[in-house]
Amino acid sequence: MAARSIASLTLSFGLVSIPVKLYSATDSAAGVGFHLLTPDGGRVKQQYVSEASGEVVARSDMKKGYEFEKGQFVVFEPDELKALEESASHVVEIVSFVPEQSVDPLFYDKAYFIAPDKRGGKPYCLLQQALRESARCALAKWSYKGRTRIVQVRAAEDGMVFQQLLFADEVRALSELHIEHVAVSKNELQLALQIIEQVSDDAYDPAAYEDDEKKRILEAIDRKIAGKQIVYPQESTEESGGQVIDLMEALRASLNANKTKRATPTKRAAAKKPVPPTEDAVLAAKPRRPVKRAAPRTEVEEAPPAKVRARK
User: Distance between CA 70 and CA 52 in Å, rounded?
Assistant: First the structure.
C-alpha cells in the first residue's frame, strides 16, 4: 500500500523554500492490540465517572482545569484554551545547523520522513547532500497541533528524516539517580573490552532482530483461530455466557447429527409399513379344523397381520 502524507510543509533554508510532504516513519499498527470484552463477548466502551457522585459524565459537559494545589483547580473555557494555542503554520523554519552527533538520542521523540513535493526535488537534494557533506543536521521550529516543537532534520541515504525532539524539561537527568561510581581495575577493564570485541558488529541491522513476544502472541492467536477457543458476542439481549466453540467438537457433533438424520427416516418407515406374517404364523393363528390341504398362498397374502386383528 502506498504511503500517505500527513501534511504539506515548506522547509525554509535561508532564502530557499523547499516544499515537502510529511510522512510517518513508524507503524503503530505493527503491534498486537487486544480489545476489552464483556463475559458474553461484546466490546466495552470507556466512560468517565465523577469521583464525587459516581455518575457518568458526558464529554460535552467536561471542562479542563489545572490543579495548582491539592483539590484546587483553575478552570479554562474552550475559547480561552484556543487563544493560548500556537497558530498552526506550514512553514518549518531552520534556525541552526549543529553536528549530528551532538544531539543525544535521548531527546528523540516521534520520527517522520519528508519527501519533496512539486518543484521541490532540486532544493531538497541540495540540502540533503549539504547535510551529509558537512556531517551536520538542521534544527528547526515547527508549529503543529497548537504547540511549537523543535525538530531535527538529518540526511539519510534515501532522503531526509524529520525527527521531533523533546524539550529539556521533558527529559530527566541521570544525575537524579545518584549512581555510585566505583573504581575498576585495568585487568577488569581489559577483559570487558575483549568481550565487547568478540561480539561487535560494524553497524546496527534492525532486520537481524525479531519481536519474540509479538511472534508468540501471533502464534497463540493462530492456534485459537484454528479452533481452540473462539468467542462470539451474543446477538440476543438475554443474559447468557459467551459461546466457546471447539472446532473438533463442532465437527463431531455435526457428523453425529447427520448420522441421526439419515437413520431416522428408515426407522419411521419401518414402523409404518407392516411386516407380512409368515405362512407358519398364519396357520398357527387359525382355529383347528379337520386336516386339510394347506391354504393357497393367495389366502396367506390376503390374511391381515396379527397386530391388525388384535386391534379389532
Answer: 15
pTM strictly above 0.70: no
Residues 6+ apart with CB under 8 A from 66: 73, 74, 76
* pLDDT grade for 79, boundaries at 50, 70 and 90: confident
Residues 65 and 78 sit within 8 Å (Cβ to Cβ) = no
pLDDT of residue 104: 96
DSSP one-letter code for 120: -
Q: How many residues would you count in the chain? A: 312
Nearest C-alpha neighbor of 145 from the set 160, 127, 159, 164? 164
Judge if 14 and 100 occupy the same domain. yes
Res. 111 pLDDT band, cuts 50 70 90: very high
Chain segment 293-304, per-residue pLDDT in tens: 544 444 444 444
| Pair 154, 253 in one domain | no
120 contacts 16 by C-beta, under 8 angstroms: no
For 97, other C-beta atoms within 10 Å of its C-beta total 15
Neighbours of 173 (CB within 10 A): 8
36 occurs within a structural domain? no
